[in-house]
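Human: We require from you a standard protein entry with sequence in single-letter code and fold as tokens, and nothing else.

Assistant:
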Amino acid sequence: MFSTNSVAEQTLHVSPVEQAPVIDGKADEIEWSTVPAITTIDRIANIPIQLQAVTSGITLFIKVRFPDETENRAHKNLVWDHDLEMYRAGPKREDFFVFKWNMNPHATDLSLSGEQSYKADIWYWKAFRTDHAGYADDKFHIYSETPSTRSKRLINKNGKSYYLARRGDAGSAAYRGRQLTEYTDDDVYSLEHQLPSGSRSDVRAKGQWSDGYWTIEFARALNTGNPDDVVISKGTVLQFGVSRYEIAGRKPDPSLEQPLAGSGDIGETLFLNLK
């Protein structure tokens, strides 16, 4: 965890509230209309993202708002190929939002082109896979010069190889794969829902899309007690970044309904100040 007493270019100040917000994506509590906000620009999507934060004393709440022309709540559908008589991967991709928190004892570049290894706590909201349950997927990233199981090789800004390993926290995700061997319909889901468990269920989140904007509310205990989570301590400043799209190190894919899915990255370095 990185903590500092310095002031960043943009700092998200956490305001205390007596009444905790309801995590429903509506963000209609009066507290959200009175606390300060910051606006950052998404590096890949080139859209403004507004952030606000409050705390009830033991829990951090963050409100996110950004423009999106369409609401996408289907993900990795399967399309029946009548010639081959089998299902093939479809083009649908859900909407996403990612918080990426520095878990190192020093400041570092949390992007996918940095020059230092790091570990980051990931809060990954997914419109289809996690929103149904009222959670974000709690995961972590390891960016290292050393390859590991299922890590992806990346080339940093100086042409050096680094490897991105994306791991889920201990517990179960809010979704699981479906095994389909026979025809049921022309277009079907490849995943089915379930409730998350363990440390993977530490982050509550709910989003609502209306009039061309997503509003997403996040909530997490300041200290979950789990070793795979960043500790949010009073009196410290935490480095983080955000991304509108999944941070997976993939290139844009024009064949997808959302070509930028999987090609997200953090932009501006941000800091959270919990006084």
Remarks:
- The radius of gyration is 19 Å.
- Residues 11-274 form a domain with the Immunoglobulin-like fold (CATH 2.60.40.1190).
- Confidence is low (pLDDT under 50) at residues 1-8.
